[in-house]
Amino acid sequence: MNFQNIQLDTTNHSSLDIYQSNTDIALPGIVVVGGGSYKQLRERDTERVALQFATQAFQSFVVNYPTEEQKSYVEAKEAIVEAFDYIKKHADQLKVDLNKLGIIGFSAGGQLAADYSNQIDTQAKFALLGYPVIKPTLDEKMGVQSTDVSKLVSPNTPPTFVWGAMNDELTPFLEHIDVYTQALAQNSVPFEVHEFSTGNHGMALANKWTGVVNDGRVDHHMSRWFPLAVEWLDEMIGIK
């Protein structure tokens, strides 16, 4: 596997990590957008998620958008656009099948991923959203001005897979996931949703692989989201 980090054009605070598998054929691609309330980008749902998808024959990418003093919802969105533009421009070199290129986001990153997937010129063919922020109810806590992404959903929104946990008090089901999936249903967008009875917010892969960098937080039932998502992706776009 080749790894490189390239600077994005938005500001000096955004970059793209590239985890490229050596292959002679173009592979599906996934752009990972981590959470962390704009305070930091956590390894649990960035690098480790990218590497997990690499084991499923994806070319994986992580967007490092501005956090802390430089945090900005607008600039974070711009960083994602530029990441996709870079991948499209270098698709042959990166061995990425642009017809199977999508996005995954967690928590605040889930809101950004949903926002990007709903743009008119989105290049995402699918979206995976883990315990996403949907409505701007956490703006004061995160220190940004965001968007109610449920209002962006249209019939052109790509197929979307969403999961969370009933124990999640940060992004409660009825305030976030339920609102978004209703919008998907109303617009006839193919989607699948899993609201686990166990687990919580910020679980990432919910297995030992992310648990070791997530205060030992593991939930074997919630960890099923990953194989379910891979199975769903194969049904939607044919990744195997």
Polypeptide structure, described:
This protein is an alpha/beta fold and 240 residues long. The protein has helices at 47-54, 73-89, 91-94, 108-117, 139-142, 177-186, 208-211, 225-237; strands spanning 2-7, 15-20, 27-33, 59-64, 96-106, 127-130, 160-165, 191-196. Strands 1-2-4-3-5-6-7-8 form an 8-stranded mixed sheet, with helices on both faces. The model has no long low-confidence stretch (mean pLDDT 96).
Brief rundown of the structure:
The protein is of the alpha/beta class. The chain has eight helices and eight strands, in the order E-E-E-H-E-H-H-E-H-E-H-E-H-E-H-H. Helix 5 links the parallel strand 6 and strand 7 (160-165).
For the structure shown, list the relevant keywords.
240 residues; alpha/beta; 8-stranded mixed sheet; 8 helices; 29% helix; 22% strand; globular
Number of strands: 8
Distance between the termini: 20 Å
Calculate Rg over CA atoms. 16 Å
Percent range of helical residues: 25-40%
SSE run: EEEHEHHEHEHEHEHH
Whole-number average pLDDT? 96
Question: If helices are DSSP runs of H or I spanning 4 or more residues, what is the number of helices?
Answer: 8
Largest pleated sheet: 8 strands, mixed
Estimated structural class: alpha/beta
Tell me, briefly, the overall form.
globular
Low-pLDDT runs: none
Strand content: 15-25%
Strand order of the largest sheet: 1-2-4-3-5-6-7-8
Give the SSE layout.
Blueprint: E1 2-7, E2 15-20, E3 27-33, H1 47-54, E4 59-64, H2 73-89, H3 91-94, E5 96-106, H4 108-117, E6 127-130, H5 139-142, E7 160-165, H6 177-186, E8 191-196, H7 208-211, H8 225-237
Parallel strand pairs: 3-4, 3-5, 5-6, 6-7, 7-8
Antiparallel strand pairs: 1-2, 2-4
Helix pairs in contact: 2-4
